[in-house]
Amino acid sequence: MYTADYVWMTPQAREDLEKELADLMAVPNPAGTDETERTDQVVDAWLARKERIRQIHELLSRADHSTSPADDGIAEPGMVLTVRFDDTGDTETFLLGTRGTADPELEVYTVASPLGSALLGAVPGEQRSFRLPNGSIQQVTVLAAKPFGAHDPRELAKR
């Protein structure tokens, strides 16, 4: 069951984030430099590093690395969805998840996006709609929903 506090990520993404965090934590703190060496650029870099550390901590603390979604065909984070845009007949395959926490070759839509929020809880064959930025309504039909890793990578080659 999906909750807003939960972040789903691939095992590889979790490993990459943990490595990035370790690298960021290993960088010497510029606070130890003497005042003549301290520049605005050094301080800005330190603040950016500190913010990235906070972001990674938040992602990792909200991620449950032991949970993969059930192969029940229900659209939820961690599921690779194939949808058809009903007005054009075009199809798209993407991961419903959190940006930066998945395979870089797989497009990611978050549950907070218009498409992602419209599809949350949908099953194959179900039609949903969402509002586009121009105000029009887009109809989309779920064709498939498979857990990440159990999806057919050949679907991505069709993009």
Automatic annotation (TrEMBL):
<dbReference type="GO" id="GO:0003677">
    <property type="term" value="F:DNA binding"/>
</dbReference>
<protein>
    <submittedName>
        <fullName>GreA/GreB family elongation factor</fullName>
    </submittedName>
</protein>
<dbReference type="GO" id="GO:0032784">
    <property type="term" value="P:regulation of DNA-templated transcription elongation"/>
</dbReference>
<keyword id="KW-0251">Elongation factor</keyword>
<feature type="domain" description="Transcription elongation factor GreA/GreB C-terminal">
    <location>
        <begin position="73"/>
        <end position="146"/>
    </location>
</feature>
<dbReference type="InterPro" id="IPR036953">
    <property type="entry name" value="GreA/GreB_C_sf"/>
</dbReference>
<dbReference type="InterPro" id="IPR001437">
    <property type="entry name" value="Tscrpt_elong_fac_GreA/B_C"/>
</dbReference>
<dbReference type="GO" id="GO:0003746">
    <property type="term" value="F:translation elongation factor activity"/>
</dbReference>
<dbReference type="InterPro" id="IPR023459">
    <property type="entry name" value="Tscrpt_elong_fac_GreA/B_fam"/>
</dbReference>
<dbReference type="Pfam" id="PF01272">
    <property type="entry name" value="GreA_GreB"/>
</dbReference>
<keyword id="KW-0648">Protein biosynthesis</keyword>
<dbReference type="GO" id="GO:0070063">
    <property type="term" value="F:RNA polymerase binding"/>
</dbReference>
